[in-house]
Amino acid sequence: MRGICLCGGLGARLGLLTKVTNKHLLQVYDKPMVFYPIKTLVDMGITEICLVTGGNYAGKFLELIGNGKRLGLDSVEYQYQEGHGGIADALKYAERFAGKEKIAVILGDNIFQDNMRWYKEAFEKRDKGASIITKVVSREDAQRFGVVAMKAGKLYKIIEKPKFPPTRYAVTGLYFYDSQVWEIIKGLKPSKRGELEITDVNNTYAKKGQLTYDVINGHWTDCGAYDTLFKANQLVYDEHRPRNNS
Predict the structure, then answer these.
(1) The pTM is what?
(2) H-helix or E-strand containing 147?
(3) pLDDT for the residue 245
(4) Whose CA, among 14, 63, 157, 174, lies 20 to 30 Å from 122?
(5) Cβ atoms within 10 A of the Cβ of 62, count?
(6) CA pair distance 115, 41, nearest whole angstrom
(7) Domains of the chain, with CATH numbers?
(8) What is the percentage of the chain residues whose pLDDT exceeds 90?
């Protein structure tokens, strides 16, 4: 399995913090943000990755990460996303890198506490399809994410930012796909935002009956807004700070 880390977008919700840099290069506690999703991939046993970014600061990723050796990577390929066409648009740039292999896709602003190796290995055993990682959140928080909708106890659809969430299973920024994903992306139409949406990719798999989900226990957050960036710093600090055992 190969890994893809998506670090595009404008980071507009972070205002002046992203005026002179890419969001994913901002610091979270003692490391650049992008180091955390890369570590998630490495901890899963994925050491060949493609990093997709764009904008004016794309070259900074090469300066920071280089060949990836010190982060536990065997190789890292860089791809440049033209414009800001959404998550699924960014993913399409990694098609040549992935070939026919299954892929793990992680958003560059997502931080997970759990080791995801089990989920990756479970997906590798499947013949085809896709799998998403979810986290139980409050009803209020569920309104900010894509949310799993159930019918007869089974996932049948992902609803994006629902006013009335049907469940509290929020879709995180970690996805597993087989090679069907490339043709699915090619068949997408831009949303009202003018972007190719990853939710539409997932719902295409769902319509085929090929989308499954897992629920994680440990903490998870993205870093796309002031409050979630602050939360990420707190979570990482709490996890790593020295404990007084006296």
Answers:
(1) 0.95
(2) strand 146-151
(3) 55
(4) 157
(5) 13
(6) 9
(7) 2-240 (3.90.550.10)
(8) 91
Sequence-distant (6+) residues with CB within 8 A of 139 are: 165, 168
Coil, helix or strand at residue 7: strand
What does the pLDDT average to over 196-219? Answer: 97
22 vs 230: CA distance, rounded Å: 17
Contact criterion met (CB below 8 Å) for 104 and 42: no
Residues contacting 16, CB < 8 A, separation 6+: none
Alpha-carbon distance of 55 to 87, in angstroms, equals: 14
- Sort 54 into a burial class: Cβ within 10 Å, 0-12 / 13-18 / 19+: buried
- Residue 106: name the closest of 36, 154, 10 by CA: 36
Q: What is the pLDDT of residues 104-127, one digit of tens each?
A: 999 999 999 999 999 999 999 999
Report d(CA 179, CA 181) in Å as an integer.
5
What does the DSSP assignment read for 173-188?
Answer: EEEEE-TTHHHHHHT-
